[in-house]
Amino acid sequence: MLSPAESNTTMELKEIEPGLSAYVCSKSGGNWIPLQNYLDWKQKVPEAPGTPPANHAPELGDDSKRRAFVCPESGRLMIRYKVGRGLNFHVDVSPVTGGIWLDRGEWEALKSQGLHIELNHIFTASYQREVRNAEYEEKLTLAFADRIGPEDFAKVDGFKTWLMAHPKARDICVYLQHNLPEKSE
User: Fold this and answer.
1) How far apart are CA 113 and CA 177, in angstroms?
2) From CA 99, how far away is CA 84, in angstroms rounded?
3) Which of 1, 20, 31, 78 fits as disulfide partner to 92, beta carbons 3.0 to 4.6 Å?
């Protein structure tokens, strides 16, 4: 089977985890994980959400500009899904076979966040919506920090934390809104 990343390189079947066989590209270091291999492995591995391994994930750059790969099994273009949750890369999946392509270091990064156990969830609409919402919130926060200034933003953010925990938060917001000046700069 030829590598999606290095079209002239034949991949070798190797165990990347005990009981999980994947095709490994010797040139790019990427892994092609057939869907059935992953599902069989996942059934045997005890799930431990919230307890990722202690090892640190490799630093992986933003791959959003990288071209789409071709599935080594079907010959069709793969679909890219943003991982999120602190990981700034995409995972490629074949819409035909369900196989998964991971670039060098991505498996280790997924493991560092405990996402290797729920890899197939990354491809769901609800997961992708969470990723988009988190990105939106982060951009919104950065925009307000820039508009308000770092020192004042820290105060506002601290107030927000206090307010969200307050039992009369809604009343406080109404009071503040009612007492805001007509025009603020």
Assistant:
1) 40
2) 20
3) 78
Tallying the residues shown for the chain, one arrives at: 185
How far is Cα 72 from Cα 152, in angstroms, rounded to an integer? 53
Angle between helices 150-165 and 125-148 (to 10 degrees): 130
Could you tell me the end-to-end alpha-carbon distance of the chain, in angstroms, rounded to an integer?
Answer: 62
Q: How many CB atoms lie within 10 A of CB 182?
A: 4
Structure tokens at 171: 């009343």
pLDDT, tens digit, for every residue of 45-82?
Answer: 876 554 455 455 556 777 777 788 999 999 999 999 99
User: Does residue 160 carry a pLDDT above 80?
Assistant: yes
**Which residue type occupies 158?**
G
Task: Count H helices and E strands in the chain, helices first.
Answer: 5, 6
Q: Which two tokens stand for residue 34?
A: 């057939």
How far, in Å, CA of 90 to CA of 81, rounded? 5
